[in-house]
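Backbone Fold Data
Goal — fold tokens
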Amino acid sequence: MRKLKNSELDRLSVEDFKKTAKTPIIIVLDNIRSLNNVGSVFRTSDAFLIEKIYLCGITATPPHKDIHKTALGSTDTVAWEYVENTMDLVENLKAENVRICAIEQAEKATMLNNFTPETDTKYALVFGNEVKGVAQDVVSVSDVVIEIPQFGTKHSLNISVSCGVVVWDLFSKLVNQFK
């Protein structure tokens, strides 16, 4: 078995990426402190054809060298927008019939492995601050709270890891629905 070279990976060009149908998932970053986390979320979003990223509150926006360091150019492919107030954004998305999913540990949360996305539904996945998580007011108005099952001694995962886990899980479930 031989590792493939980047030139053998048959990836989309930036222009083709922008024209390609997207996964019906929007990512909302609620007051993320780490620029490296922001860049990693962009890279994950590129990999799974995420429709758009909203950067809210204190979350930094491109261009920035620390975002670029982990995004590796995906800030040029994935659509993004800055919105100051996460609650305003969530209310607007709900008005557009987007299903709001807070990724958080909460009472009556649905475990990720038990969550089945519906076809013909667009989802907004809200990921929160590295210390405080998703703001309580956002959790309170979410259509569902999704929790990543964890079995060790730590209480949480890094936001970029959480994003990768949740996006991959939903992407794989959505792709399987169309087979």
User: Anything to note?
Assistant: Residues 42 and 75 are 6 Å apart (CA to CA).
